[in-house]
Amino acid sequence: MNLAIFASGNGSNFSAIVKAIRQSRIKAKLVILVCDRPRAFVVKRAKKEKVRVVLVRREDFVSRADFEMAIIQRLRSYKIDLIALAGFMRMLSPSFVRRYRKRILNIHPSLLPAFKGSHAIKDAIDHKASFTGVTVHFVDEQMDHGPVILQERIKIRSNDTLSLLEKRIHALEHRMYPRVIELFCSGRIKYPKRPGI
Ligand code: GAR
């Protein structure tokens, strides 16, 4: 199974997945990192791990369709079977999702459908929620949406700060995402026949 990770930022999930592959917990080959931000720390991580980096900046293309076509061409040439979004802060178009339907995973730092978007951890604190968590799901045409594969809950403590909660959420993500990818790669997770949500 040929895997591509899409990421835009720090890349701690990228590293957790790389580690699981190196330890043979995930039976997949990480073929490329697709990144839309050349200065993102994840690019450094990929270079250190000798993972090929495909840099695609949206500004270099006239339209989103052209931008995505450039990505699709690389996915095709590297025969990618599975895409794991790991902090890729860009919505994929419905036509991209249809092309790779059932083969795109995403991780999100909340119990979806609560707190979608790019500030989910802060939003949970601001809303004085008692719990939040992490969701791994198949991607559909909507943002942070699609059939849920795994969710785990985390209690928000009264003395939690953003950075304390972020730490616990990331630690949970680094356990959950490799596990889900491992299950997918060994054929134990399939896109549901009737997605429901
Ligand atoms: C992760 O917390 C991931 O759940 C989140 O971005 C972070 C990336 O961290 N994704 C989203 O918010 C998607 N809507 P990382 O770069 O250290 O892996």
Structure overview:
The chain has 197 residues and is an alpha/beta fold. The chain has one domain (2-185): Rossmann fold (3-Layer(aba) Sandwich). The protein contains six helices and seven strands. A seven-stranded mixed β-sheet has the order 3-2-1-4-5-6-7, with helices on both faces. It is globular. The two termini are 27 Å apart. Bound molecules: glycinamide ribonucleotide. Glycinamide ribonucleotide binds next to helix 1 and strand 5.
Rg, nearest Å? 16 Å
**Mean model confidence by pLDDT:** 96
Write down the overall geometry.
globular
The SSE string, one letter per element, is EHEHEHEHEHEEH
Low-confidence stretches: none
Could you tell me the strand content as a percent range?
15-25%
CATH class, named Alpha Beta
Question: Quick one: biggest sheet?
Answer: 7 strands, mixed
Helical region count? Answer: 6
CATH architecture: 3-Layer(aba) Sandwich
Strand order of the largest sheet: 3-2-1-4-5-6-7
Question: Can you identify the CATH superfamily?
Answer: Formyl transferase, N-terminal domain
End-to-end Cα distance, whole Å, is 27 Å
User: Percentage of helical residues?
Assistant: 25-40%
What is CATH's topology name? Rossmann fold
Question: Number of domains in the coordinates?
Answer: 1
Bound molecules: glycinamide ribonucleotide
The count of DSSP E runs of length 2 or more, i.e. the number of strands, is 7
